[in-house]
Each structure stands twice: as C-alpha cells, then as structure tokens.
Amino acid sequence: MDIFDRLKTAATDDWQAYVDHDFVRRLGGGTLPEAAFRTYLVQDYLFLIQFARAYALASYKSRRLEDIRSAQAGLASVLEETELHVRLCARWGLSRDDIETAPEHQATVAYTRFVLDCGAAGDLLELHVALAPCVIGYAEIGRALVAAHGPSLEGHPYGEWIGEYAGEGYQGVAAAARRRLDDLAQRSMTEGRFTELAAIFAKASRLEADFWQMGLDARGP
Amino acid sequence: MDIFDRLKTAATDDWQAYVDHDFVRRLGGGTLPEAAFRTYLVQDYLFLIQFARAYALASYKSRRLEDIRSAQAGLASVLEETELHVRLCARWGLSRDDIETAPEHQATVAYTRFVLDCGAAGDLLELHVALAPCVIGYAEIGRALVAAHGPSLEGHPYGEWIGEYAGEGYQGVAAAARRRLDDLAQRSMTEGRFTELAAIFAKASRLEADFWQMGLDARGP
Amino acid sequence: MDIFDRLKTAATDDWQAYVDHDFVRRLGGGTLPEAAFRTYLVQDYLFLIQFARAYALASYKSRRLEDIRSAQAGLASVLEETELHVRLCARWGLSRDDIETAPEHQATVAYTRFVLDCGAAGDLLELHVALAPCVIGYAEIGRALVAAHGPSLEGHPYGEWIGEYAGEGYQGVAAAARRRLDDLAQRSMTEGRFTELAAIFAKASRLEADFWQMGLDARGP
Amino acid sequence: MDIFDRLKTAATDDWQAYVDHDFVRRLGGGTLPEAAFRTYLVQDYLFLIQFARAYALASYKSRRLEDIRSAQAGLASVLEETELHVRLCARWGLSRDDIETAPEHQATVAYTRFVLDCGAAGDLLELHVALAPCVIGYAEIGRALVAAHGPSLEGHPYGEWIGEYAGEGYQGVAAAARRRLDDLAQRSMTEGRFTELAAIFAKASRLEADFWQMGLDARGP
C-alpha cells in the first residue's frame, strides 16, 4: 500500500463522494448537460493558472537542483496544459476571452487557494498531498470511466476529456505523482503525522467534490 | 475620498450585495433563524484563526520595527477576539469542542485562503485590501444596523453582536485600518494599479457575501 | 539525548567553533575590545528585527490556534528584547538613531536571511533548527561563561550581557525551545531527515561564528 | 533615464565599488589568480541554484498567466545556465561533485538569501530590484571589459567568461530585465517608494562586491 492508497483509505467517504460524484457519473454516461460541462471547462482553466503557481511554489521550496528542476518540469507541463485547454474550450465555442475574463467561482477559489496555502504554510509533502486528489484523482476517474463505459469513446460527447485522463500520458503523470508522495513521505512523514495529512487529503477531496457540484449547479456560460 | 471609499465606489454592486445581504437584514431585524446564526458563529471562529495567520503574515512581511510591531498588535487582538468568540458561542450553547472540531465550510476556506494568498503573493497593500471588506465592512454594517434599528439593542436576539461592531472600540479599529490603507497606498499605489486593487476588493466582497449565504443556507449545528 | 543534543553532536566542529569562538572567550575574560562589543551590539539589534520576523513567520505557518499563539508570544518577547537592547546600547553610548541607521553587515544579512529562508522554504522544524544555535546557543554560552569565570559579574565589563543569558529567565526560554524542537521532530522528523537537519544546524552555527568574527574584525561604531 | 539608471545614480558609490571591484579589474586584465577564479566559479554555481529558486518565486507570485510563463522561462534559463556552468567548471578541472558538495560561503548565503527574502516579503518589483545588480550588472561588466581590453579575447585566460556576458545573448537578457523593471515600476512605484528601492539596490550591490571579495580572499578549491 503506497501513501496515496493509505490516504484514500483514511478518507474513504470524502474520496468516494468526489470520484463518484453525480457530475462524474453523468459525464461518463454522456448525460451531463452541456451547460454544466462548459461552466466546468471555464473554471478548470482558471484552476490551472493557480495550479501552475502551485508548481512554481514547489520549485521555490525545493533545495536540491534536481527537485527544483522536477518542479519546473511540472510547471512547464501545466502551462502547456492551459494551451490545450484553450483549444478544447474553442471546440465548445468558448473563446480565449470568454475564459480569461470569467470571474472565478467560489469553488475554484476555495480549492486552489487551499492548496496554495497548504504549500506556503507547510512543506512539500503537504503541498503534494493537497494536490493529489486533483493530480492523481483525475487519472483514477478517467480510468474508471473507461472501465465502466468501454474503451470506445467514439461519438461520446465527452470522449475527448475522458480519453485525455484515461490515456497513457496522463496515467504516467499520476504514477509519477504517487511515487513522489512516497519519496516525500519517506523523508518527513512520521506515523503521528499521517492523521494530519489524511485530514488535508479529505478536505481537498471535499473541495474537489464541491467543484463538480459548482458545474452541476451552473447554467453555464 | 480615502482609498477605502474609492474601492467601495469602484465595486459598488459587489459591496452592496455584501453589506446589504439578506443575512444582514434579517440579523438586524431580529428575524434571522437561530440555526443560521449558530452556523455563522462557528464558521466565524474558524475564520478568525486564519485571520490571525493573516496578521502574522503582515508582521513577517514588514521591514520596519514599527510595522512589525503594529501587525503584532493586530495579531494579538485577533487572538483575543477568538476568546471572546468562544464565550459568545457558549451563550448560544456551543462548546469549545463544537467549534474547534467543526469542519471548515467551503465559504470559509474560500475567503480566508484568498486573503492569505493575496498576502503571500502580493504586498502588504494587497493583503490589507483583501482584508478590508471584513475589517472595515463589519464596522459599517454594525453602524448601519444601529442607524436603522435604533441604538437600543435590549432584548434584540443579536444585540450583542451588533453592539460589538457598532461600538466605539471596533469603530476605532476600522478607522485605523482605513488610515493604514491610505498609508500603504501612498507608498505603492499608482493610479494604474488601482484597477487591480479594486478587483481584489470586489472579489473579497463577493466571498464575504457568499459567507453570509452559507449561514442562511445552513440548518446550523 | 534530545534533538538539540543530537544536532550538536552531529555538528561538533562547527558548534565548538561557534560557542568557543575567540569573541566569546575574550568577552568572558573581559578582554574583548570595546569597539568589538559595540559593533556586535549594533548588529545584534538589526539581527533582532529579523528574528522578530522569523517568529511572525512561525506564527503564520502554524495551523492550530495554540501554535499561532505560542509563536505570537515568541514574537512579542523578541519585540520586548529589542527595547531592552536599545537601553543596553544607550549605556554604551549608542543612541537609538545610531543603531537604527547602521547598515546591516554581511554577517548579519547572511545568518538572518538564511534563517528566514529556511522557514519560508521549509517547515516549522527547519525554521526552529536554524534558530537553535542562536536561541539555545546563547543560553549555553551564558552558562558556560559563568561556570568558567564564577557567578560574580560585579565589575565585569560585559557582566550585564553574561548575566542576561546565564539568568533564569533566558535559561527557561532556551529550555522551552529545546522542548519545542523535540515536539516538532516527533511530528515530522524521520531518521533519514536528520542528516539534512544537522546540515542546517551546522551551517547556522558557522554563520553564528562568522557573526562573532564580524565583531572582532570591526573597529566599532 | 530608465529605472535601472535611476537606481545606479542613487547608489553610485556602492555600484562603482561593485562593478569596478579589484576582482573585476584583475579578471579583465587577466591577472586574477586562478585560485580566486576557481573559488568564484564554485560559489557562483551554488549561487545559481538559489537564483533558480528566485525565478520560481517570481513565477509563484505572478497573477497573470503571461507573467507566470515569463518567470518560468527565466527559471528554465537559469537551470540551463547551471549546466553550462558545470561544463565551464570542468574546463577548470572542477568535477560536478567538487562543486555540488562545496559548502556555501557566507558571501553566497548573504546575497542569495537577501534576494529571496526581498521577494518573499516584498512584491515582484522588490525581488527584481534585488536581482538587478546581478542580472543587469554582469552585462555591464562584460561590455565594459570588452570596451577596455578590446574585442579579441583569444588567449585571454578568462575570455570565455567575458565573452559570455559581453555577448549578444546575455546583453539581450539584461535589456529585457531593464524593461521588466520599468514595467513593474510603472505599476507600483510611487516616487516616495523610490528611496526604499534604491536602498535595496545599494545593499544588493554591496553584497555583490562582497561576493567578488570572497573570491579574492580565497585560496581556491
């Protein structure tokens, strides 16, 4: 059992409420209202900007050149992801201007700033634990949706999204994130500290579930 | 017109939606459901803990001894306020344990971490602009409620709360906060930067309105 | 063996070079040139300003109210110490203006900013390990000087300084700092991490020794 | 007059003591002892690691995607520079291990942590003002040495170093850094604040001069 599995087990209810949220189910089943998905897409773009900052923070907080470099690679790839996101938005009829000028929703502020504050006030382990529901969770969600609905995403309205996170590339990103959690935990996680980390993980999972809910509640841009 | 008035004017709609929120009106009129007030009280305690951290951040970011000292005084008084809060909660039947173990609501996370991130990523001016809707806004709300409902708060279910913020002590705190904004703006606010600061102020006001809404929506502890 | 003793043992040479520095010996023996002491006093005042910021940083980085409060108490007492320092300087003919306008020496910048960066980039444990040579070291130095030169400091040119750090008050501060290190280590120090912490401790000790050397090298204000 | 020129003018003495330091003169004249240069090279490598962190900090503190991206590009290029540095060191007989395990000198700690603290406690303008003596100063030094000693660096013992900083590539980096200072100043520099910024610039210049001095004083690895 790696640290990520231990965190999931310790936060089972919050984790399930997140990865099995109605938004996710309906996205998988293709019945998610388009307005919900569009709202999600726009907020997810704003989310990525803050995530880029979280990787920059990880780079700043690193001491060894290889850690600075590895966080910089993470930052570069989030920045690249924002460009992919702009293209995905375009296919849903959302212009760059639509997404850049949209106000951040409370749910977006809550999760992103929570992560950044975990990183600013805590150490790299806390930062990465707070990021894990997003970074590793999306890979689990993508894989689970493919398992439930079959590998053929042709004609699926949200097939591109599912394919992205179920794909080999993103699965590799998530696997690397799991290994990093283990490395960081080996360095500075005593058993006594696990409870605190599990509380951060549970809270981040709840804030992620709230993020899905924001999509469902919205009528979309 | 001091900076605070300029910020309010620039963010009129968001500001009005906050200070004239239904939660505030019903609190003033004495018709706010007790459950809403109790939920608010508990979250406000969790809010204060993060506010203490915001003043500690201001102290850390100061360069001159007098600024370190002044932020330290702010920190000390927020810490004192948390104790008053515990006593106020007790009068509403909420034990210290009830309030310390309550999970932070999304609205609490969103506003507090937004403020902390403004302070961590920006300068002292941004930190204090993000704090202003709370620190100065509560004084305006307290005074407005007394103006609307008369100075006698006897028998008013929320009279203690109103009296606290309408009182001379808190009005002085808010007046000092306004002067500090002016001092900080004189140092590092160009006219071009005002637009950015007004956007921070507007966003903080919206997050404060969401905080009231969280109280209204809740069934209370 | 508490963590502090383990750190000292792991960094024996750097520790000895610091606590047994020629500046310390001559201060104890009363033969330290007045100019060296005066230079030290002025820089130590500038040092305390940054130390106040380090405690403010500890307060900001704390999560639990009791930790925020405890760091705030540390901050308040450093701020008080700066006032004592102004009075001590006055007795050596140094006005408040002399000490406030003095440029920070390289040695002062190096140690203080190193500590602040340990705290900004690391966790509370790293911050307190970097502070330890100063906070706990001064208590050891004070006690050792009294042991070597006898308890009567009457007529000793630096008796007030020695008495301050050898005294019960400061010894209690240092004992509390040792306990805090143990608490923090119990939370987030794995054995693997000890090596890193010992390197921080050794470096901080070297920077403290450089601080004494700066005093010796100077001709004084 | 751009901001950089104003800063230089305000800090003329400290600036001259830095760019016209004996280390620089002797490097230009080819009479710098090899040991001094080797010591400098090793410490400059350790310096670059902290500079990478400073750019990561700038990226974290940015709000707009384009600013995050631009700081990320700066970070990437500092990381690349460290590799060039390893190769340069190799030509002077210094292995990667020699440079990675060398202890940081007080002068290295002082300047790098001062810059990082300016960035952590202040805003992006302060961070870039603190970086300017290094980033822009090296371009001025490189150009001045070529102007003094002629463009042919063939056979010059330190020709590679001079050519690097006098070259078009680095001159472009410095020109961009000057423009960024102007942009940041336009946003948040009032005239009243200029004095504070000039003090930061002067201090950073003194710490850079101390860094040269450290090279001269050393007997080299």
Give your account of this protein's structure.
4 copies of one chain form a homotetramer. Chain A is mostly helical. Helices cover 83% and strands 0% of the residues of chain A. Chain A has 11 helices and no strands. Chain A has helices at residues 3-10, 12-19, 22-29, 34-61, 65-91, 96-101, 106-121, 124-149, 159-166, 168-188, 191-217. In chain A, helix 4 packs parallel to helix 7 (106-121) and helix 4 (34-61) packs antiparallel against helix 11. The longest helix of chain A is centred in the first third of the chain and has 28 residues, at 34-61. The first copy, chain A, is globular. Chains in contact: A-B, A-C, A-D, B-C, B-D, C-D. Chain A binds chain D through residues 49, 52-53, 56-57, 59-60, 62, 65, 68-69, 71-72, 75-76, 79, 82, 100, and chain D through 49, 52-53, 56-57, 59-60, 62, 65, 68-69, 71-72, 75-76, 79, 82, 100.
- The SS-based structural class of chain A is mainly alpha
Backbone CA Rg of chain A: 17 Å
Classify the helix fraction of chain A into a percent range. over 70%
What would the principal axes of the Cα set say about the shape of chain A?
A: globular
Number of helical segments of chain A?
11
Biggest contact: A-D, 18 and 18 residues
Secondary-structure element string of chain A = HHHHHHHHHHH
**Uncertain stretches of 5 or more adjacent residues of chain A:** none
Strand content of chain A: under 5%
Give average pLDDT of chain A, whole number.
Answer: 95
Quaternary organization: homotetramer
Distance from first to last alpha carbon of chain A? 42 Å
The profile of the biggest β sheet of chain A is: none
Q: What's the number of extended β-strand segments of chain A?
A: 0
